[in-house]
Amino acid sequence: MPRIPFHYVDLRTFCYETEDEKRVESALRTFLPEEFELTRTESAGHHGDRIVVLSARVENADDVRHVLARLSELPEFETLLSELDERVTDNTELFLRLDKQAAFRGDVRRGDGITLRAKVEAYPATKDAAVENAREALERADALDSDAES
Fold first, then answer.
1. Which Gene3D superfamilies does its entry note (predicted)?
2. What would the pLDDT profile of 128-143 be if each residue is shown by its tens digit?
3. Where are the domains of the chain?
4. What is the 3-state secondary structure (H, E, C) of the chain?
C-alpha cells in the first residue's frame, strides 16, 4: 500500500440560515469515509443570522486515501495537477475549493462552498518538495481507495 504524504486533510463548509443543515452535511460527507465524525460550530453572521460551520479533519492514512480518491473524480483533474504550484503554499499546504451543490448530488466538482486544506509532508519542508509529493500522491489517487479496501 503506497505511503500517503499528507499529515491531514481539513474539509470545511458553512450552512447559512437559508440552507438545510442535513443537506449541507450530506454535501460535505461526499468527500468523507462513511460515519466520519463532523465538528459542528454555531456562529452568527454580520446581520445576526445563524451560520453553522461543519468541518472534519482527516488524519488516518486510509481516510486520507478515501478523500484523495474522491478528488481524483474531478472532471478537471489534470488541470488541478497543472495548478499545484499555485495551490500549494510556502507552508506546504494544499488549498482547493469544491462545489457544495454538486457535492450534495454526490458529484465531485471544483467551485464554491467547501474548502479543502491539506498539509503536505515534505522533507525538507519546502514548497517545491510539497508540490512534488502532492503531485505524486494525486497522480495515483484513483487507485488509493481500492488499495485501502484490499
1. 3.30.1440.10
2. 999 999 999 999 887 7
3. 6-149
4. CCCCCEEEEEEEEEEECCCCHHHHHHHHHCCCCCCCCCEEEEEECCCCCEEEEEEEEECCHHHHHHHHHHHCCCCCHHHHHHCHHHHECCCCEEEEEEEHHHHHCCCCCECCEEEEEEEECCCCCCHHHHHHHHHHHHHCHHHHHHHHHC
pLDDT score recorded for residue 2: 55
How far apart, in whole angstroms, are the C-alpha atoms of residue 17 and residue 121? 37
How confident is the model over 64-80, as pLDDT tens digits?
999 999 999 999 999 99
The grid coordinates listed for 119 are 498539509
Give the span between the Cα atoms of 112 and 53, in whole angstroms: 15
- Please give the CATH architecture assigned to the domain spanning 6-149: 2-Layer Sandwich (3.30)
pLDDT in tens, 34-66: 999 999 999 988 888 999 999 999 999 999 999
Of 20, 16, 70, residue with least CA distance to 45: 16
